[in-house]
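Budget justification note: compute hours in this period were largely spent on complex prediction jobs such as the one shown. Inputs:
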Amino acid sequence: MQNRKNRKGAVLFTDYNRGRSIKKALSMSREEVLFEIKESKLKGRGGAGFPTSTKWMLTAAAKSDVKYVICNADEGEPGTFKDRVLLSEYPDLVFDGMVIAGYVIGAKEGIVYLRGEYEYMLDSLNEYLEVIRKENLLGKNILGKDKSKEGFDFDIRIHLGNGAYVCGEETALIESLEGHRGEARNRPPFPVNSGFKGKPTTVNNVETLAAVTKIIENSGKWYQEHGTDKSTGSKLFSVSGDCEKPGVYELPWGTKISELLKIVSAKNTKAVQVGGASGICLDKSQFNRTLGYEDMPTGGSIIVFNESRNMLKVLKNFMEFFVEESCGQCTPCRIGNVKLLEGVKMIERNEFTFNYINKLKELGATMQVASKCGLGQSSPNSFISILENFKDEILNTGLNSTSFGNGGNNGK
Amino acid sequence: MLVQEKNSLTEEIEKYVEELGKDRSALLEILHLLQKKHRCIPDFAQQEVARLLDIHPVEVFSVITFYSFLNAEPKGRNIVRVCQTISCDMKGKDNLCNAIEREIGIKFGETSKDNKFTLEYTNCLGLCDQGPAMAVNDRVYTSLTPEKAVEILNGVK
Ligand SMILES: Cc1cc2nc3c(=O)[nH]c(=O)nc-3n(C[C@H](O)[C@H](O)[C@H](O)COP(=O)(O)O)c2cc1C
Ligand code: SF4
Ligand code: FES
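Corresponding output:
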């Protein structure tokens, strides 16, 4: 088992004394803090890659007495577990980042939306919050910021999810927090203007908030020196599947897939799924591609498949996931995913026509533009990329019904 | 349900509402507490929650049906959830599930006659580096073999 002591990295997996960045941030003006974040060019680590400084600026500029910071710890994308590591081993980075966010946007309350599957962390996280409350890193007049004028008050509570992947989508998350079904909202309005209870809200991924803490500790310029021009800083990758050393790795953006495969000791690799079930699947010819916004942006899920795996079964596993997790609110996603899964089963039984499979790919392209939220917009990615990149194996061999490997038949 | 049971359920819900507030945003936390205590949210509880939060009972029901960790009908005393997603699948979750089914004598999706176990599949538990993974109630177990999984279930009360 790994722990904080033996993790290695350049930005996040480094030493830190809790409260340090809060203290520094509170000695600066809000604009100065925002400037550092802007200078760092940090982009959201939840997958969408929206510039964090812009999100905070918009929330800070929105007129309202009440605002909220939400830490998105719903981490449900298959193959993702980096936020689990951050929350259990680096809560100092995450919560300090939330306090700094609260200071910049002018919020008094922060909410962590913790996926129900992580309930086993709840007690220790609450204990941690209690400790930093005692140290006045949380609560009323944090670190006695200003004795003469009004201080900065901010507190954090943790809300448990109840087992729904779509609640990671920020507007579905807010619906869920408000006591509704987790169904994505129409946008605009965006949460920065009208989020939780209609108030300006910034929703950030766990890793984004942890990065903020390091940026304030060391400066935006320092952060920018890591990674590449458009993809600054480091990224946590959750690596699983066929490799000897699965786990969470902190690597600079710009790392090539082939380099990553070496680091995790993957042998006889046939395919790499980048970005989880909603990401895309690469074949060998694409292992020289680089991880980063220039080429392959990702929330960090990397699943490795060796030569023994049946890619049709992999695809079936992903499509079953989306059929189960679609909130069912809009037709392209609710019906589309069922149709794509049916198509996979037709191929499995060798009862497909190329004509129909092409129609399904077109349906996938329609879902990408016509679905209401990111779930339906990205669920066809696997379908399209696996059928393109592993066409010969899947469509041209007729081997599907006598399948080999155990790539995911869900025990059915 | 007996009148006494009804009264105590009402009292319990009133207590939650007092702690968490009458706002709609308290709904999921209240349902979570009820689910934990009673392993389901029975009809009468749904009506009482609706009454105290001033929303329609159908709203409460529709929220319950949306979330996979909430249910209106009772399940077994222990809920076993095995991750069915790809990384755990590749690490041999099928063998695990077959062994569990043989040992407990029911299929996934079913509840045992003595109400001790409900077996379910779940999607990625965020433990993909240590698959196959399984949750029993709110505890998780990783790097399982069929033998280990069965042993764990045998140790459950
Ligand atoms: C279906 C779906 C699931 C998502 N799940 C998560 C999640 O678990 N964690 C997360 O941080 N963002 C998730 N997102 C992205 C969020 O909507 C949002 O973009 C993100 O929390 C913003 O934070 P960031 O700017 O710090 O990345 C998801 C998006 C979609 C469409
Ligand atoms: S795309 Fe899917 S998950 Fe998103 S709103 Fe539509 S049905 Fe719901
Ligand atoms: S795939 Fe099983 S825990 Fe992620």
